[in-house]
Amino acid sequence: MSYLITGATGLVGQQLLTRLLKRRKSLYCLVKDDDNRQRLLDMAAKLNQQRLIIPIMGNLRDPLLGLSETDLEHLKGNVTDVVHLACDRDFGNITNERVKRHIYGTEQVIACGHAIGAKRLHHLSSIAAAGLYRGCFDETMFSQAEQLTHPYFLSHHLCEKVVRQQSDLAFRIYRPGFIVGDSQTGQANRVQGPYYFFKLMQRLGDMVPKWMPLAGFEGGCINIVPADYVADALDCLIHTPDLDGQCFHLTDNKPYLAGEVLNLISKANRGPTLTLKFNMNLGGLLPQPWLQLASQYPPIAKLGQRVLADLGIPQDLWSMLNYPTRFDNHNAKRILDAAGIHCPDLASYINPVWDYWERNLDPELFIEQAICAKLANKVVMITGAGSGIGRACAQRLATTGAKLILVGRRQDKLEETLALIEAKGGKGLACPCDLTQDDAVKQLISERLSQEGNVDVLINCAGRSIRRSVQHSTERMHDYERTMAINYFARVRLILGLIETMASQGRGHIINVSSIGVLTNAPRFSAYVASNSALEAFCRCAGAEYADRNVSFTTINMPLVDTPMSAPTELYQAIPTLSAAQAADLIAKAVVKRPKRIATRLGIVGATLHALSPTIAESCMNMLYRLFPESGEIQPNDKHYHNQQQIIGLAAMLRGIHF
Ligand SMILES: NC(=O)c1ccc[n+]([C@@H]2O[C@H](COP(=O)([O-])OP(=O)(O)OC[C@H]3O[C@@H](n4cnc5c(N)ncnc54)[C@H](OP(=O)(O)O)[C@@H]3O)[C@@H](O)[C@H]2O)c1
């Protein structure tokens, strides 16, 4: 037995190759270009099997796979089995055009097998060939498939049909469940299928603490299998005699419900549990015409698309959560059980799969490329760039290819930041300006717009904070005026000066560094929180006006950060804070994703508590207000002095909230 294999460098292909090699037969592997060929040669070198793994240049899009005369001649009589693994397993990318290509590719695999005198075709199909069949689909069923409307289902179904109807070779068909990485190492090569939900659960884990119970749903059974199980099963079934013309389900006998799968993913992420389950079919009790109307109403549809795009989930994948099909795998199981091959329980291997995704496949790992693509040759204005978060942000963006306009009052500080970014190969300009002065800001804007044409991203960092209770502010109206002057009016002044140019050029992003205090209503910060809240309110209204002109607003509810601003408060020296570089990472994330808001988990819990039970929230904050001392108040004879350990412990637990 020797083999011609398509898709040898894919997720299943790589694993299958290592198993087939044990039989010491030649593996002719179709490679479509030099990159693909090199990948295969690297694999062969790693396995020290350059003699047995032989690349064959060709393409599924060409007649007879585009094999050269020489290759066809060489393969003739040398190949007994054609193993067709290549196909699109990515639910998110498949289009009707690609369906046609897959069908054509499968036809050419058959034609090529015939031309080289192969005996048998092994076709890796998918459970998707059943469509969205309601009930139990067994290995003898094919034409009973239902609801093949999505190209992903259609493609697998029609390719299988080609094999069944057009193959003049003997054939075996294998239908695996949704394939994830290796059950031991988690290794996979791309994000597809269940991986799309990893980002969703990661976001949830970032936003909500582990102990918080959440409402979830049950959904349908999602049949997930690891790549090594599929490869073991293929290796066994390919080499078992007398199975031609049969179909095998390579599925999990006890698949989990969609809600349980999300919970397992969340557990692997050490995130919260979706405890309260509701049945998604309950949606059926709601008036359907209303639901349909609502979901087709453009703003609602657009909103849904934006949420899914933000999470990187293909729109149609959402419908898979209610997957209606179960799979009977008696035929495959009988043979695989005898060979000692069993599909492992998802719960036993979700951890390595998650870890591998988080370390190698998470799209946010590629944030560096994304941010460079976003900012290359763009103009970014950073206020407060002479120190703290603003300076760290300038350093973070220095290597993106953007021109950085550095704004603040102290020229020497701005020059220092400029030197730091130039040392990293960045480019920028120090523009000293007191942002509370109307004329100075007008001049800054007119100079910059005439020189640069537009400011593509405005990062409002310049600000001031005042930690003083209302009780101690009764004679200090100027505190309220000073915070409003820089945290609200100065930022609005800049936005008003730049926004119309942004909108007329069809691109603009305004990022405001606000505070977690806005979400938690921190006592002693009434002046500071009110000024930031005013800006958030302004941006919510302006955002609604500019959403269709591609100008977006992002608010970052920053927790406590170690900068010159927080330094004077002694208490903050003893508790964990974010570093300025970590704060700059949040700004970088905002640049790439353009979300409405970036907040920490504690901030979201605080906002939720204030929304659900304002009285309880107020009492909690009052208790904390009484416990924490006023700035400069800790004296040996003060009660706070004796409570200090308790205070520091509590502040560490409520990491990031200022008191
Ligand atoms: N540090 C934290 O814990 C924390 C937490 C949440 C939110 N934030 C927010 O993050 C932002 C940056 O704070 P930071 O911690 O980096 O503080 P920082 O180091 O004190 O930086 C504040 C910057 O604002 C500039 N600035 C102040 N008044 C100005 C004016 N009138 N015109 C122009 N620039 C002015 C200052 O530069 P010049 O003095 O040279 O003008 C300084 O570079 C602030 O808006 C703050 O409210 C900070």
From TrEMBL:
<dbReference type="InterPro" id="IPR036291">
    <property type="entry name" value="NAD(P)-bd_dom_sf"/>
</dbReference>
<feature type="domain" description="Ketoreductase">
    <location>
        <begin position="378"/>
        <end position="562"/>
    </location>
</feature>
<dbReference type="GO" id="GO:0016491">
    <property type="term" value="F:oxidoreductase activity"/>
</dbReference>
<dbReference type="Pfam" id="PF00106">
    <property type="entry name" value="adh_short"/>
</dbReference>
<dbReference type="InterPro" id="IPR013120">
    <property type="entry name" value="FAR_NAD-bd"/>
</dbReference>
<protein>
    <submittedName>
        <fullName>SDR family oxidoreductase</fullName>
    </submittedName>
</protein>
<keyword id="KW-0560">Oxidoreductase</keyword>
<dbReference type="InterPro" id="IPR057326">
    <property type="entry name" value="KR_dom"/>
</dbReference>
<comment type="similarity">
    <text>Belongs to the short-chain dehydrogenases/reductases (SDR) family.</text>
</comment>
<dbReference type="InterPro" id="IPR057313">
    <property type="entry name" value="Maqu_2507-like"/>
</dbReference>
<dbReference type="Pfam" id="PF07993">
    <property type="entry name" value="NAD_binding_4"/>
</dbReference>
<dbReference type="InterPro" id="IPR002347">
    <property type="entry name" value="SDR_fam"/>
</dbReference>
<dbReference type="GO" id="GO:0016020">
    <property type="term" value="C:membrane"/>
</dbReference>
